[in-house]
Design a protein that fits this description.
single chain; mainly alpha; 2 domains; 2 helices; 51% helix
């Protein structure tokens, strides 16, 4: 059975590993859907340039509102 010091060291190592993982992922998380060539607003669906998930800010805002309502 591990003693308190062993348990504390193991916990500290887990926190350290999580912090390293978060630091490595900073700035890489995308909020929203992945681009696929069409606007993700279900009320639109127009073609969009490569690398963009929405055709304009209005469609993006509508998508976010729908997402919030669906929970």
């Amino acid at each position: 059975m591990p003693d308190d010091i062993d348990a504390a060291v193991a916990l500290e190592e887990r926190f350290h590993a999580l912090n390293l993982q978060r630091a490595a992922n900073m700035g890489r998380t995308r909020v929203g859907p992945e681009p696929n060539g069409t606007c993700h607003n279900p009320r639109c669906g127009d073609d969009v340039p490569e690398g963009r998930p929405f055709c304009n800010a209005e469609c993006r805002d509508t998508w976010e509102q729908i997402r919030k309502l669906r929970g």
